[in-house]
L-lactate utilization protein LutC
Amino acid sequence: MPMSKDLVKQFKEKAAAVSAEVFTSPTQAKALDKAVEWLRKEKKLKITADDKLAGLLAARDTAGFSLTFPDKPEQFAELQAALVEADFAVAETGTLVHLDATPRDLWRWTLPENCLAFLDRGKIAANMEELLEAFNTYLSSGGKEGEGSLANEVKQISFVTGPSRTADIEGQLELGVHGPLRLLIFIYG
């Protein structure tokens, strides 16, 4: 996928327009440091993370954090934050994309009150057409590992554009009813 500063800028603008909070860092390690700093400042210490980010968290000062790996949706809903790696993004809409292999993957994105998503800037597609081309390549090549097709492992594709929002019958906007109350996106690379 061609990457440019313009795609990052467009993604940031579109994501911010739907109430996502977007940060940029030169490396994933620095992005994770920013996230840990935010969690401490906001006193969001009861967290979960996907396997990759949990491994990276182990190398940081996480004293006081309670990092858990729930099995049930109600356990995810009790957590204050989840750290997840986005598989792709769409600049045109400010949308994050996650390839869910298990229900736990989906619950991690949607049930805790705060979602801290990490995004490699090289995975930002300009639009949906470019994203579909990237899906095809990614799934048929086996993804990052290159060990055969991932098509049988991916059970669902999640598109996340900003924190959860809905309106009541009077048109009053409510955040966090059907998903995270806050979405923080840490773009790196």
